[in-house]
Amino acid sequence: MQTPTAEATTGATDLRPNPTHDPNEHLRDPDKGYVALLGWVPNAIDALDKFDRRYVVVAPPWAEEYCSQHQIPYVPWDFERLNDRSMEIAETLRDMGVDVAIPLFEETVEWAGAINSMLLDNPTLYGQSLLLRDKALMKRRAQLGGIRVGIFEEAHERDDVIRFLKRVNQTLLKLDGDPNDPIHLKAFDKAGCLGHRVIRTPDEVDTIPEEEFPVLMESHLDGWEFAVEAWVHNGRVVFLNISEYVTLGYSVFVPASPELEKYRPEITRQIEKLIKTFDIKFGFVHPEYFVTSDGEMYFGEVAYRPPGFKVFELLERTYGFNAYQGLVLAFDPKTTEDEIAAFFPREVVDAKGHAGCFGVYPRRRVVSTLEIPEATEDHEYFESHELTAPVEETVTKRTAFGTHWGLVYFFGDDAYEMRSVLRDQEDRDFYV
C-alpha cells in the first residue's frame, strides 16, 4: 500500500518520543486516548493543553524551538515531500503509545489516514483519506452513494476547459449570443477557495497558469451555498452546525439564520447519507452544499479537517464549547457516549447569539495604512479584528478567490442584522 511520505529535513534521530515534558501531565486521564495533532494550530494546542487527553503535536522542524520553550509535547516531521520513509512517523507515534492522529489541515488528511491505518489496524482508512482529499474522486463516490452532484470533469489542459464550457452551455440550450453559464475550476486537493476560479468565456481560459493543471471542472449551481460542521462518533452525528455564507470567500456566521435553519432536517439526512457513503465511523466532516429554490440539496465537496475562517472559534463564542476539544472526543476511540452527551450543547437552542467574521482584502492597488472604518467599529455587533499594518504598499492582484489579509469579528442577537453588517463590510476600505 502506497502511503503519504516525507523527505524529512530532519534525520531519523529527530523523531524521538516525548521530546518535551508536558507540565500538565497530572491533568491527563491515562484511561483516555493519546492523540497526535497533525499540523500547527495554536488555538488547537491551547485547547488540548487545557483538556484531559494526552497529546503530542506533529509539526515541521521550525516549531521545535517554540515547543521546547513552552513545554509542548512535540515530534518534528516534514509533511511537504514524499519518499520511502512513509511509515516512520506512524511507527514513532505507535511506539509512543498514540491511539489516533487528527488532521488539522487539508495537507495532513492523507497523513492521518495512513497513520491511523496502522494505529487502528484498519487499512481502509488510508483509501478513505484519498477520497476525502481528491475532489474528483469524492464526487464520484458521492454519485455512487446516490448523492446529488452537478456535472463535473477533469481538465489536464486549457483545451479541456474550453470544451467543457461549450458542452455545459450546449446542454443548457444556450443560443448564439446568449451569455454563458459559468463553470468552476478547482484544485483537486487544496482547501477552501484556494485555486477556485470562475470561467465564463473561452478568453478567460488563457489566464489559467499551466502549473494549476490538472483541475476539476464543475457546472454552476444556482442556489444557496452553505457549509456544515459535523462531529461523528460511532457512525452517528453527535453535533451538527450549519454555517451561513454571506459572500463566499468573504464572510460567514454561525448558527445560520432561521431561513436556512428550516432545512436542518433535510441537511441532517444528507449528512447521514454522506457519512454512510464514505463509511465514516468517527471524526469530523466539513461538507459544502447548495440548496436550490425548489429545496433540492446538491453536494459540493467535503473535507475531513477543521474549517477555515475560524469557524471553530465562532462556535465557541456563541455556544461556549471548545470545538477543538470536541474534535478530540470525536476521534478518540476511548471516548464514551456519556462524555459525548455531556460535552456538546443542543444545536441552535443553546446558542447565545450569532457569531460572524469578515475576511478583509484590500480594495486598492496601493496601500500604506491600516484604518478600521468608523462605521465598522461603531456598530454594536463589532467585537475585534486581527488585521495588521501592511508590510508592502503594492497589493498583489487577487487571483481566483485569493486569500484574505485578516478577519474582523462580530457578535449579535439577530441573524439578519448579522448578515447585513457582514455584507456592508464589502464596500469599506480597511487599508488606505
UniProtKB/TrEMBL annotation:
Residues 1-28 are annotated as: Disordered. Residues 1-12 have a biased composition (Polar residues). Residues 139-332 form the ATP-grasp domain. InterPro entries: ATP-dep_AA_Ligase, ATP-grasp. Keywords: ATP-binding, Ligase, Nucleotide-binding. It comes from the Bacteria. PROSITE patterns: ATP_GRASP. Pfam families: ATP-grasp_4. PANTHER family: ATP-GRASP ENZYME FSQD (PTHR43585:SF2), FUMIPYRROLE BIOSYNTHESIS PROTEIN C (PTHR43585). This is ATP-grasp domain-containing protein. It comes from Dietzia maris.
